[in-house]
Amino acid sequence: MSDSAKSKEVFDFFRKKYDTPYSIADLTATVCELCGVKAPEQCAATPIAAAVDQGDKLMNGIGKTQKVLLFCADAMGEHQRKNFPEIFERIEKISTFRFLSCSVMPSVTPVCYGTIFSGAAPCVHGIEKYEKKVLAVDTLFDAFARAGKNVAICAYNNCSIDVIFRQRNVDYYSFRTDEGSFKCAMDLMERSNYDLIVCYMNDYDHTMHATGPFSKEAEEEANRAADRYTAFTQQADKCWEKYNHAVLFVPDHGGHLVNESNGAHGTDTPEDMLVNHFYRIKAGK
Ligand SMILES: [Zn+2]
């Protein structure tokens, strides 16, 4: 079986199991299509037609999306949306689309972001358990670099996203805090010529492991994630006003309550496997 067929089999299996039309892998295919960039080599996912059509409509079929910010809020899944409806309403209200998508197994960070940014299943991209090694397959970031675009990844020191996408034609900004990554991405939107910026946020995931997914502390971090997504959309409207642009909210998996005071993920259950990818697509002026 070809790599592409293997990946498709995995995506179809979870789509059917969780009765959702989308896989987290569709993100890479969709962003490439929106931006007119050839998808990475092993990408077996499908561009989401609603998002691509909206992009084409807004840009009058002449241009493509020129600037993209991907806000990767770890573990902010569908189970979180159901339990924090007001927080996710804030996210949805400023987005053009919400796509309920199924993750891949095991539902842990390097496995899931490996799939999200390669469009390939874990058995193809090579990270099949919780391990942080440099991804050996082609990714969204390589595809953008080949198309002559500038890519930046802002992330917490040694987190999965900081490690698994290394050794590419990308600028890496690494910080001791999520706040450092956030401020850096905001600053890069204003002062640099990056076309694709990734900002990773670890704190909701970290807090939900330590205190449970719906603790007061975890809720504070979920609120902060909504605040930061809002700030990115405002910054895009200000700094990328002239460009067709997109700001996306891109979680990897959800998370569930284990006992009174802890949270976890990694299982093949709706709590861990369902996430929403939000897209906000705007035409330049
Ligand atoms: Zn994660």
| Fourth-level CATH superfamily | Alkaline Phosphatase, subunit A
* Tally of distinct domains: 1
Tell me, what's the shape? Answer: globular
What is the percentage of strand-forming residues? 15-25%
CATH architecture: 3-Layer(aba) Sandwich
CATH fold group:
Alkaline Phosphatase, subunit A
Helices and strands, in order, run as: HEHHEHHEHHHEHEHEHHEEEHE
Determine the number of helices (DSSP H or I, runs of at least 4 residues).
Answer: 13
* Cofactors, ions and other ligands in the entry: zinc ion
Structural class: alpha/beta
Major sheet strand order: 1-3-10-7-2-6-4-5
CATH hierarchy class name? Alpha Beta
Helix content: 40-55%
Mean pLDDT, as a whole number? 96
Low-confidence stretches: none
Total beta strands: 10
Give a structural overview.
This protein has 285 residues and is of the alpha/beta class. It has a single domain, classed as 3-Layer(aba) Sandwich (Alkaline Phosphatase, subunit A), CATH 3.40.720. It is built from 13 helices and 10 strands. The strands form 2 sheets. The chain has an 8-stranded mixed sheet with strand order 1-3-10-7-2-6-4-5, sandwiched between helices. Strands 8-9 form a two-stranded antiparallel sheet. Helix 9 links the parallel strand 4 and strand 5. The longest helix is centred in the C-terminal third of the chain and has 24 residues. The chain is globular, with a radius of gyration of 17 Å. The N and C termini lie far apart (47 Å). The protein binds zinc ion (ZN). Zinc ion binds next to loops. Zinc ion (ZN) binds next to loops.
